[in-house]
Structure formats: C-alpha cells, structure tokens
Design goal:
By secondary structure, the protein is of the alpha+beta class. It has three domains: about 30 residues; about 80 residues, Nucleic acid-binding proteins (OB fold (Dihydrolipoamide Acetyltransferase, E2P), Beta Barrel), CATH 2.40.50.140; about 45 residues, no CATH class.
C-alpha cells in the first residue's frame, strides 16, 4: 500500500548510496587510525637509534631488556681479559655505564671514540653487550687516499679535520691518475 510519501531508500537501514559510501570511508579511516596508533605505541622505544648512559639512568630500564647503548669509550677504561673478554666504560659526558663484551672488537674501536653496543643490563647494572659497533665521523679518509690527494695537489685542509696524516709521508700504493 502506498502512503503517498517520499520513496524509501533501499539498502542498509534505509541509507542512500552516498551515505553508505561515507560510512564505509569513515569506518576504514577509524580502523587505519587504530592500526597506526598500535604500531607507534609498540615501536616508541625502538625508534631511537641508541640510548645514552644518561637516558638509561633516567628511563630506569629493567635488567634483561634489550636496547642499544651509545656514547664515547672513556679513556683508560678498556681492560682486556682472557678468551676475548673485554670491559670498558661508555660515557656521554654526564653519566657513564660499564660494559662487558666477549668477542672480537671492530678495527675502529678505541678509547675516546664513539661506540654503539647492543645488549641488555644485568642485575648489577653492567651492560652485557653481544654486539659492538665502532662509530667514526664523516670526515674519515683512508691514509693512502689522503696521501694520493696531497701528492696530486688536490688536498684541502678541511678533508682531514679528524685525520692525522703526515703531509711529508710517501704513499705506499698511491692510485694512479688516468690522463
């Protein structure tokens, strides 16, 4: 029986096609926002490349939780033991953290140099590292390359701000320039 009123839209609970489309888009955006929030919440501590000793003391990281520790190896703190066991102290200028590592250290690892270690704190507050990465600055240049540049007259003083290269040294195997 016709009641003489407006036509009744068909579909979901009397919604028009435009209303259904907007409802689907809105629902999809809500689901997407929830997914992004969950991912960011899960990764909030992992987004940082490394934590400094000061950050470790402020965060009160519990023993056994894995993280990356970064800073400078304090001069005089490196002690080598038996069977590749090494202990050293990582500092950021305001706080320091003792590190224990068993394994072969990277070639660039030195006291006073930057280091990033991966591992966890033990109950005594020592960082037990299972991986140690040595950091270097972006001005690093191998000695042979620096010597070759000096010999050819292309050396600029700002190339080796962090390098200690003897200007009078003769390169062992300087690359030849092709002319």
């Amino acid at each position: 029986m016709d009641d003489g009123g407006a036509p009744v839209p068909s579909g979901w609970f009397g919604m028009t096609r435009k209303q259904r489309r907007l409802t689907m888009i809105g629902g999809a955006l809500v689901v997407l926002a929830i997914a992004v929030a969950l991912v960011l919440n899960a990764l909030r501590d992992s987004i940082v490349f490394f934590s400094t000793p000061t950050m470790v003391s402020e965060k009160q990281i519990p023993p056994g939780k894995r993280f990356r520790l970064g800073g400078l190896v304090e001069p005089g703190s490196l002690h080598k033991g038996a069977h590749l066991a090494v202990t050293f102290t990582v500092s950021d200028g305001s706080a320091a953290l003792p590190v224990a590592y068993t394994g072969i250290l990277p070639d660039l690892f030195r006291e006073g140099q930057g280091v990033v270690a991966e591992g966890a704190l033990d109950a005594s507050g020592t960082f037990k590292a299972d991986t140690v990465l040595a950091k270097h600055d972006e001005t690093y240049m191998p000695k042979d390359v620096a010597d070759a540049l000096k010999k050819q007259g292309h050396w600029k003083d700002d190339y080796g701000a962090g390098n200690k290269v003897d200007a009078n040294a003769t390169p062992a195997a300087a690359p030849r320039s092709i002319q």
